[in-house]
Amino acid sequence: MLEIDKQSPLPIYYQIEAYLKQQIDDGLLKPGDTLPSEREFSEQFHVSRMTIRQAIMNLVNAGYLSRQKGRGTFVASQKIAMTLSGLTSFSEEIKHRGMRPLSRLLSYEVIPATDRIAQQLSIPNQTPVYEMKRLRLADDNPLALETAYIPVHLLPDLTQDDATGSIYAYAEQHGLRLKNATQTLEARSAGPEEAKLLTISPNAPVLLIDQRTYLDDGSMFEYSRSLFRGDSYSLTVAMDRI
């Protein structure tokens, strides 16, 4: 049991945070375990609930804990490590890690490409494109929010049902050859609606990935923007010296 040292130069919330982190690192608290409530922690350590809240939120932001509205605070699962060394789909990456991928279609429509989308896809303005917004899950746990744009003429028969699976696999089954992609990564905070869908706290850290995927003839196949949970996702970049 942690003994709070109120004479220590270390803030009390930091002492509690370090104690809980050690419990997780040592395996005494395991992924999926439910933490006591702020009130219970407050009574246990004889400190204010605000102090407990600060310690817990720091651990949530660091990826050790996750909060689910109406359910409580849990020890977070191990992060899913993606390697940036080849072009794979979300479904392929998740299956490779022994988990079950799932896409929940939030919206699906054909729209005329705006100036921005047309520029990203290198197509004329107003060209019909699919706009698909999907919640991507691994073993039923929300991991990412994705908005993808694909010119309709590349996949004229793509349906809503098709959009719930791997679009890369669908494209290849219909004769398209995907070659490579470029990604731009940016750290930011989740907005209220994004946080709700990803079951994280508002302003929790997320990783924004802009991806442009190309066909073997050099033309653009897809432009997508994905928000990945910062507490569930990490990137490894493979680099060669040049």
Automatic annotation (TrEMBL):
UniProt keyword terms in alphabetical order: DNA-binding, Transcription, Transcription regulation
Limits of the HTH gntR-type domain: 10-78
Protein's name according to its UniProt entry: GntR family transcriptional regulator
InterPro entries, per the entry: Bact_HTH_transcr_reg (IPR050679), Chorismate_lyase_/UTRA_dom_sf (IPR028978), Tscrpt_reg_HTH_GntR (IPR000524), UTRA (IPR011663), WH-like_DNA-bd_sf (IPR036388), WH_DNA-bd_sf (IPR036390)
Domain of life: Bacteria
Pfam families assigned: GntR (PF00392), UTRA (PF07702)
